[in-house]
Amino acid sequence: MPRRPPDRGGADAERHLAHPPEPDDVRRRLREHPDAKGMLLITSTDWGTGADVGGVARVCHEFDVPLIVDEAWGAHLPCHPGLPAWGMDAEADLVVTSVHKMGGAIEQSSVFHLQYDRVSPEVLRQREDLLGTTSASTLVHATLDGWRRQMVEHGRELLDTALHRAERIRAAVAGLPGLVPMDQEMVDAGLAAAFDPLKIVIDVRGLGISGMQATEWLRVHRNVDMGGFDTCRVSASITHADDDRTEQILLDALRARRKGRLPRTAATGTTVRTLGPGAGTGHAAA
Ligand SMILES: Cc1ncc(COP(=O)(O)O)c(C=O)c1O
After folding, report:
1. Whose CA is nearest to atom 1 of ligand 1?
2. What was the pLDDT predicted at 263?
3. Residue 134 — very low, low, confident or very high, per pLDDT cuts 50/70/90?
4. Are residues 142 and 215 in the same domain?
5. How many angstroms is it from 117 CA to the middle of ligand 1?
6. What residue's CA is closest to ligand 1, atom 2?
7. 207 CA distance to ligand 1 middle (Å)
8. Domain encompassing residue 112
9. Is 39 helix (H, G, I), strand (E, B) or coil?
10. How many domains does the chain have?
């Protein structure tokens, strides 16, 4: 596995990906910027790759600055031992999580978790007051509490099921020529320190198309919206809310895209043009 040069700031040239910074990257930057007031770390990324949060936290604390973790995609992390550590267990000072993403609360259910004394709770509340609504939503609070309770009572089994589902999907995708799912090989020196197995990240370059083209095709022809995409890949998140039906929809759509099938629509008898290498957006053609 190629090692990441120390001054490339997380760039993975082979995959055209940027990984979260490593503790030594952070130490170097904090030395270069002694006036820095804190460190903001985004982990896990949209591609499921995660930082060594504990290592970065310890470096920040050597410099006596707080580590703030944007863990928007990590609401599920504390709820199962088979998942990467969440920021609060890894000594971050402040963790911000969108419970509506990988958790089960309604939209706008983002929360702070705070520990230690590097971030003042009063200052945090004042800043939050500047940006937040003065009209708290009972729905938001009720779904947050419902999610918390569901995870305490059933989190382990629900996430066990989701993890098995994700593994099954990854294995099925690995069997489709032209599609390469990302897996734990991302966790290596110089690459990522953790990988969230609930992210199904698929390199589509073997089909001769970009992730943008694959996403457009899946949306137009299969009504499947991918969670993320770039020039090389697409990604989908599996959560406790997925079931056999959604698993099948995703796999059927990927199989259809791989084959470059030209389905005839029953209603109109029109042929749907698929994306070929270097083609633009797929369109329905009479
Ligand atoms: C890394 C990251 N941080 C923050 C956000 C915004 O989160 P919220 O929906 O809680 O405003 C997103 C949204 O996709 C995100 O991906």
Report:
1. 72
2. 45
3. confident
4. no
5. 25
6. 72
7. 30
8. 11-155
9. strand
10. 2
pLDDT beyond 70 at 5: no
The answer on 189 and 108 residing in a single domain is no
pTM, whole model, 2 decimals?
0.86
pLDDT(11) > 80: no
Which tokens sit at 24? 């030594």
Residue closest via CA to ligand 1's atom 10 equals 98
Pocket of ligand 1 (CB under 6 A): 42, 70, 72, 98, 110
Could you read off the pLDDT of 161-184 as tens digits, one per residue?
Answer: 999 999 999 999 999 999 999 999
C-alpha span between 213 and 230 (Å, rounded): 9
Query: Are residues 23 and 114 located together in one domain of the fold?
Result: yes
CATH number of the domain within which 202 lies? 3.90.1150.10
153 CA to middle of ligand 1, Å? Answer: 27
The count of other CB atoms within 10 Å of the CB of residue 178 is 16
For the CA of 110, the closest atom of ligand 1 is 10
What band does 280 get if pLDDT is binned at 50, 70 and 90? very low
Phi-psi region of 110 (alpha: psi -120 to 50; beta: other; left: phi over 0): beta
Residue 24 has pLDDT above 50, yes or no: yes
In a domain, 6, yes or no: no
Given 97, 122, 155, which residue is the final one in a domain?
155
Cα separations in angstroms, 152 against 155, 191, 239, 242: 6, 33, 16, 19
